[in-house]
Records
---
Amino acid sequence: MSMAAGNSKGAKSDINVTPLVDVCLVLLIIFMVMVPRNVPEISVKVPPDAKNQQRKPPTEEPLVIGLTADGGLTLNRNPTDKNKLAEQITKQLEFRDKKVVFIDFDDKAKYGEAVDILDLAKRSGAEVLGIMKPKDKTRTPDKLNG
């Protein structure tokens, strides 16, 4: 049996596209399968709602609790009651980074009342308690911090 190859006038110059399409499809499938596996995960941490955590600007004035010889209490040289002192200290320390309270006791104040004031300040959120000495009273507490 013989085959006729058509006109035998020369070489056939048509491009056979089928193998090219097969190779392109195989490469396309390989890239489609591999690309999702190579992309790293991006984890995002969303901050909490800012409405609930707005901070007031901290006041720079240090807290100084004073106890006089007759049992009178002052907070930053303003007279106060012992019942309200804990609430005032907590409110003042709420937005401060450094929770420092200075204690200024009169030399003739009762020791028991002084210890009660120290405990009250600690329970109200003070982390550091500083007791002012007589020579410190001539300087301001600002100079004691720095």
Note: The mean pLDDT is 79.
---
Amino acid sequence: MLNLFFLDDKLVFPPVETATKEGIIAIGGDLSVKRLILAYSSGIFPWYSETEPILWWSPDPRFVLFPQNIKISKSLKKFNKKNIYKITFDKDFENVINMCSKLRSKKGTWLTNEMIEAYIALHNEGYAHSVEAWHNNKLAGGLYGVSLGRCFFGESMFFIMENASKVCLITLAETLLKKEFLFIDSQVYTRHLENFGACNISRNDYIDLLKKGLDFQTFKGSWSEIMK
């Protein structure tokens, strides 16, 4: 870590090309709204455990899901047609992010109280958003992430009932496609999202896509109205 960039009060990040082989680009700083927006706009995101300082990442390759390429299995299509869940946007962001943290806490989670507070602040400023699945007026699953321009940066998801988070992801992808979003950033590889069609692209290609997506005006405010 001797070559890493140590952040101070200045709102600045080093070039993404200076990241380590693992993808770490900087240490320290804070999780203010301005710094987080700068990070996402630069192809960087925070990811660290409770026992670590704030770590900032820009991995190469980058794992992304293009909304137009989402793959939905026959069984999931059949399940989705049953309309078991009512899907909403931004109806209960705080509950969604807290459930994402709670259901991972036994195995250890990067969603610390500091991170939760930071993303709630982003949500209150109109940059972070959630998708919820409801069954009998109870939260069955959901996901959340950050939106800038025509780019969505997925952060975490959870489910309590069968396929609830999957239905949220499908709804999100279909809605973002209608709004001409370029990609859903999944950050690093997971088999779960690979099954939905996510793929690795080079960091250079990701940065090019990011720049194109940021050329559009950011959809701010409550997605419950914007995403209709």
Note: The domain at 5-59 is CATH 3.30.70.3550 (Alpha-Beta Plaits).
